[in-house]
């Protein structure tokens, strides 16, 4: 499948679910690769599928593979010294339309390193290789993982994973609290926090989960 087709499919899913503009405010965001999240066999996050609350209470495995060409983003590069941050956020807390806890921070891990990476060279983004995959969350937890806990009768919640590239020399700081990402402003969340910490958004994936009592 052509890169532009893959990218457009992701963007369409984000728009249809209103992850754009609720979580990602700009509709100009273009993903730079695939963010794969798995809670176990047959429990992968798949751009808006539904998973059970029970199956998502443990920290998932994750992988990212760059998917770009020089034509689409000639100035983008990744090197062995780069570090990455992964977050999980719920924009529907306590329920869609009531933003008093939104966004709710479920997880932040920083300083994720690339696995199996040649330390002597930067990556040519015209390549699409497995060496661009990082996995197993080999970083430092800023906010411990908290699984979904949607209240009864609040419908499906969106649980959105966002992967960022860190700015060299800038250490992301933990949000002050989970509700509203510690800002005290209903509706604020991952994007406001990422801007404060000078992070560059690379990729996104999300799933739905709901309380059994509806």
User: How far apart lie the N and C ends?
Assistant: 39 Å
- Structural class given helices, strands, pairing? alpha+beta
Number of domains: 1
Helix content: 10-25%
Order of helices and strands: HHEEEEEEEEEHE
Helices, by number, come to 3
Report the portion of residues in β strands: 25-35%
Written description of the protein model:
This protein has one domain: Phosphatidylethanolamine-binding Protein. Strands 3-10-9-5-6-8 form a 6-stranded mixed beta sheet. A 4-stranded antiparallel beta sheet has the order 2-1-4-7, with no helix packed on it. It is built from 3 helices and 10 strands; from the N terminus they run H-H-E-E-E-E-E-E-E-E-E-H-E. It has helices at 3-16, 19-22, 190-196, and strands spanning 33-38, 44-45, 49-50, 61-66, 84-90, 104-112, 134-135, 140-143, 157-165, 200-209. A hairpin with a 5-residue loop joins strand 1 (33-38) and strand 2. The protein is of the alpha+beta class. Helix content is 12%, strand content 27%. This is Carboxypeptidase Y inhibitor, function requires acetylation by the NatB N-terminal acetyltransferase. Pfam families: PBP (PF01161). InterPro entries: PEBP, PEBP-like_sf, PEBP_euk.
Layout of secondary structure:
Elements: H1 3-16, H2 19-22, E1 33-38, E2 44-45, E3 49-50, E4 61-66, E5 84-90, E6 104-112, E7 134-135, E8 140-143, E9 157-165, H3 190-196, E10 200-209
Parallel strand pairs: 3-10
Antiparallel strand pairs: 1-2, 1-4, 4-7, 5-6, 5-9, 6-8, 9-10
